[in-house]
Amino acid sequence: MTRFRWLVPTLYILFLMLPIYGLLAMSFKTTNEILGGFSLFPQVFTVDSYVKILTDSTWYSGYINSIIYVVVNTLVSVLFALPAAYAFSRYRFLGDKHLFFWLLTNRMAPPAVFALPFLQLYSAMGLFDTHVAVALSHCLFNIPLAVWILEGFMSGVPKQIDETAYIDGYSFPKFFTRIFMPLIASGIGVTAFFCFMFSWVELLLAKTLTSVAAKPIAAVMTRTASTSGYELGLLAAAGVLTIIPGAIVIYFVRNYIAKGFALGRV
Amino acid sequence: MGKTWNNRAWFMVLPVLIIVALNAIVPLMTVVNYSVQDTFGDNVFFFEGARWFREVMSSERFLSSLGRQFTFTAIILAIEIPLGVAVALAMPRRGFWASVCLVLMALPLLIPWNVVGAMWNIFALPDIGLLGYTINHMGIDYNFTNQPISAWVTVVLMDVWHWTSLVVLLAYAGLQSIDDAYYQAAHIDGASRWSVFRYIQLPKMKHVLTIAFLLRFMDSFMIFTEPFVLTGGGPGNTTTFLSIDLVKAALGEFNLGSAAAMSIIYFLMTLLVCWLFYTYTMKGEQK
């Protein structure tokens, strides 16, 4: 029985890859072929869809916009969460437990509830249709997540290390950047990965808060699906290209990803 | 717990507090405002008290989308948790193939949610999609755009595809923390495969599986984009879950009062689950 154990993950991965393969195959077909009927492989292999996306600025600017707000959000989330997570993992202070709980509730808040108020809030601040607006709004769920994961990793570092460093005459900022941060480097990497991931996949808020100048790739795709007929090949190619950034960042954190999903608490 | 009491730690938390409060409290108060007021336009609002809440709580529409939501969440939990554990148990524990499995399995988690919906839409189309075409060729009449059952099967299958890997990764992380000595001891005692699972692996996975269960519960409760792109809530209303119903009411019909009241009820439900989650993880800390 153990000899066939590899079958389970193999079949599971096969199941995961099938829809992705469908998308990939479709992105290399011409629109006529797609609408003409089902075929497992492209009959006429074409890269036209990709060429169009990479040369037409309305398309590729969608990717650039998405990447800008995702990167800004990841930086802000990690930088703000680092000191807060340290405070939660090392100190007790007035209302700490309530605060931590309140932060968590924001990770659980359904974005659909917040879409309309967010639109009003960011319009009132004059930030509508900017990358900053999307990056800030994604902080709603990414900062709590970042604090949570980092706190888990930081609690795994013995407190004696802090105390020894202070006795050795390190100031807090120097201790934090020179000694503590390298110790939890994998935790910081995983946190950044998670912030990147959740900002990259979230589109309801990103779409609500932008119109032209900071339009994310998802909005460009929706527009194509509705206005210029139904260019499935183009849509499929755009979809394939949205998978690539994720695949790249996964590769870098592959050894820590499981621990990260357990929020650093295994 | 060995933590020092230090109120100056507030300064370290302050930046996070400000930025999250901006995003959480202002919009939440807007929603609360809408939920107790009504308007005839021109930005003139007047107080309505609990009317919207009474209306929503007794409306057929809200109760049926709530019912669909619970059914959906129950189904996907019943599939994803056992499947995830089974896959994690069968995975190679370390080495090259373990990395390959992790990377490939994490892939669906990183695809933007509207692309997941679009991908499954294409995949399941009966005439041109791989899945839809295959099923119809096996002689089963399947069309998710006009058959409620097919639509449900497709939405559930899509969620299993999208999120089972989260359970796998969590269970895998739990299994990794088991020392080899446990397995050796079990081997010497001649323990069966089942008792190794029941008395060694399952207890060690209890903590991560609770995290998985609650995360999946909460996330499936706020599912919006994927089913919206896949089926648009249809055919009819058969796959209209809570979030979809809410967005339809707020942005589609501009029925702000009842949408806001729905939001608050919805939010209180997630808050309850969140509290259970919090008390559990904190209990785990203290042991």
Furnish the topology, listing elements before pairings.
The complex is a heterodimer of chains A (266) and B (287).
Chain A: H1 7-27, H2 31-36, H3 48-55, H4 57-90, E1 91-92, H5 96-108, H6 111-124, H7 131-155, H8 159-167, H9 172-183, H10 185-201, H11 204-208, H12 217-226, H13 232-253, H14 257-261
Helix pairs in contact in A: 1-13, 3-4, 3-13, 4-7, 4-10, 4-12, 5-7, 7-10, 8-9, 10-13, 12-13
Chain B: E1 4-5, H1 10-35, E2 37-39, E3 45-47, H2 51-58, H3 60-90, H4 96-106, H5 113-124, H6 130-137, H7 148-176, H8 180-188, H9 193-221, H10 225-230, H11 242-252, H12 256-286
Antiparallel strand pairs in B: 2-3
Helix pairs in contact in B: 1-12, 2-12, 3-7, 3-9, 7-9, 9-12, 11-12
Q: Could you describe the 3D structure shown?
A:
Chain A is an all-alpha fold and 266 residues long. Chain A is 76% helix and 1% strand. Chain A has one domain: MetI-like fold (Orthogonal Bundle), CATH 1.10.3720. The mean pLDDT of chain A is 84. Chain B has a two-stranded antiparallel ribbon. Chain B has a domain at 62-240: MetI-like fold (Orthogonal Bundle), CATH 1.10.3720.10. Chain B is an all-alpha fold.
Offer a quick outline of the entry.
Chain A has helices at residues 7-27, 31-36, 48-55, 57-90, 96-108, 111-124, 131-155, 159-167, 172-183, 185-201, 204-208, 217-226, 232-253, 257-261; one strand spanning 91-92. With 266 residues, chain A is mainly α. The model of chain A has no long low-confidence stretch (mean pLDDT 84).
Largest sheet of chain A at a glance?
Answer: none
Q: How many separate structural domains of chain A?
A: 1
Q: Which CATH top level class of chain A fits?
A: Mainly Alpha
Number of helices of chain B: 12
Structural class of chain A: mainly alpha
- Strand tally of chain A, please? 1
**CATH homologous superfamily classification of one domain in chain B:** MetI-like
Major beta-sheet overview of chain B = 2 strands, antiparallel
**Largest interface, C-beta within 8 A:** A-B, 100 and 103 residues
Estimated helix fraction of chain A: over 70%
Strand order of the largest sheet of chain B: 2-3
